Amino acid sequence: MVSDARVGVVRRLQLWTIARLRRSRFLPIGIPDKVADEHRLGQAFSHTILLYFATAQDSLYQLRPWYPALTALDADHRVIAVFKDSRTAAVVRAESGLDCVTLARYGQLDEILGKSDVKLALYVNHDPINFECLRFTSLVHIYLGHGDSDKGVSISNQVKAYDFCFLAGQGALERTADNVMLYDAAARSVLIGQPQLDGATSYVQRPDPAGRKTVLYAPTWEGSQPSVSYGSLETHGLPLVRALRGHYRVIYRPHPLSGVISGSYAAADAAIRDDAERVDLAVPMEQSFADADLLICDVSAVSLNWLPSGKPFLVTTPRARFPKSRLMDVIPQLGANDDAAVVVAKHLETDPSAETRRGLIDYYLGEPTPGVATQRFIEACTNAIEIRDKHWSAKKATGAQGP
């Protein structure tokens, strides 16, 4: 039999190797390194609100649009952002100025929250790891999401895990109420608009030097399951870009997760990057929008974010079945075998859905005036804090406090 001492040596060697790998430059950015901020361990948070982002750096596209709103919220109620990946925390700290801390293990969060008076926890995705924070009954848990869309994942049963969901508009509320069983969407939802769009008007169009109209192709990724496989790279992709190139300035804006599931999808993405005239990787989404005269996208949040621009757009016909919606009832679809150049020319010239689209802005996004959604977001958080304090005081009075 192997001695206990030898087992102990082997285990210590394994842990040392894992720790070195986590701190090395070789760990993929899609895997949280769990390198904790040792100097913060055991120290109480002095913040009122916690943002929990347990996913890794390749998912930062979900959080970045919230920076301005979170910064504004931080001015009224101090916000701390909690991560499991130190590299992600470092990027967010530099980009947003928020107080960021990396906690490697659930026990570290448990110890700190036990000493703190944090009242709200905010989440921008449905990652299962969120449940490490959702366990704490001293917090009000609020789902923000990272954009509204007609994707099937927008009506996830996971909304039941949160005390409140902050939604963009009536469209999101009706979508949730119609599709999530045994859930009081009206009682658990707060309509705030989309704070992520408040800064969009500050970007000015940069026209094509050659005088051509600009088409933005911004597909989504392949999706993690067949039922939400709305991505068009393999069905439309390269032929679409080549059909438009020359007639128009074509901007390709790939989704950050394109190709993480499917090798063939990754190959299609790479081929378009090699062929496209301009690829917007580091350019803000708002600048891509400002530079374009027409958008081609998939069933995704991009379509709703584009609505306030008032400019025409087309949605690719997906392979997966998508939920019926007001948007998809009126927005022209682009089939894989359609002549993209002819379809684009028609909609640039006549824009037949323009008037109907204008009527959808309030339904999907609420009041689009810059700054309004951010103020509603802050007010909604303040109201949630008041609800929490009232409820927590009642629990303390009866001695029924939880973790």
Task: Give a verbal description of the structure.
- It is a single chain.
- By secondary structure, the protein is of the alpha/beta class.
- It has two domains: 25-197, 3-Deoxy-D-manno-octulosonic-acid transferase, N-terminal domain (Rossmann fold), CATH 3.40.50.11720; 207-364, Rossmann fold (3-Layer(aba) Sandwich).
- It is built from 16 helices and 13 strands.
- The protein has helices spanning 4-22, 67-76, 86-96, 106-115, 131-134, 170-179, 185-188, 233-244, 263-275, 285-291, 301-306, 326-330, 340-350, 354-358, 361-365, 372-398, and strands at 49-53, 79-83, 99-102, 120-123, 140-143, 164-167, 189-191, 214-218, 249-252, 278-279, 294-297, 313-316, 333-334.
- The strands form two sheets. The chain has a seven-stranded parallel sheet with strand order 3-2-1-4-5-6-7. Strands 10-9-8-11-12-13 form a six-stranded parallel sheet, with helices on both faces.
- Strand 8, helix 8 (233-244) and strand 9 (249-252) form a beta-alpha-beta unit.
- The longest helix is centred in the C-terminal third of the chain and has 27 residues, at 372-398.
- The radius of gyration is 23 Å and the shape is globular.
- The model is unreliable at 14-22 (pLDDT under 50).
